Amino acid sequence: MPAPLTLAPGLTATLPGSAPKHVSLADKMRGTAQDFEAMFLNSMLQQMFAGVGQGPFGGGHAANVWRSFLTDEYAKSFAKNGGIGIADHVYRSLLAQQEVRSTAANAAQQGSPTP
């Protein structure tokens, strides 16, 4: 099986026909929590940059598009590097919900009523 190609630090891709990498449920939940925080930060950064003048690109539609890409990348970078703590709270909430569902499923399998 071919080794994954390294694109950039933290990013990998596999060659066609190779087996996908197994990702645990906890990793998926952590990624979802980080994505949520990045979305929140992006919204806040867009509001922050709304009052900024034209900047080095002379303004216009293209500068606004570029600015939206810039704020999106800032937000993803902030969230990936610890953010402001929202992802940790969302992650803990997702873990708690998973535990409740798991407990309910185990109780249902054993035939006892759920707590």
Rg for CA atoms: 21 Å
- Rounded mean pLDDT score: 78
Shape: elongated
Oligomer: single chain
Largest sheet: 2 strands, antiparallel
**Weakly predicted, low-confidence segments:** 4-8
Distance between the amino and carboxyl termini: 47 Å
Count of beta strands: 2
Strand content: 5-15%
Strand arrangement, major sheet: 1-2
Order of helices and strands: EEHHH
By helix and strand content, what is the structural category?
A: mainly alpha
Number of helices: 3
What level of helicity do the residues show? 55-70%
Characterise this structure.
With 115 residues, the protein is mainly alpha-helical. It has a domain of 75 residues. The protein is 62% helix and 6% strand. The protein has 3 helices and 2 strands. It has a two-stranded antiparallel sheet. A hairpin with a 2-residue loop joins β1 and β2. α1 crosses α2 and α1 runs antiparallel to α3. The longest helix has 25 residues. It is elongated. About 4% of the residues have low confidence.
Question: In summary, what is this structure?
Answer:
The chain is built from three helices and two strands, in the order ββααα.
Secondary structure layout plus pairing:
Layout: E1 5-8, E2 11-13, H1 25-49, H2 60-80, H3 86-110
Antiparallel strand pairs: 1-2
Helix pairs in contact: 1-2, 1-3
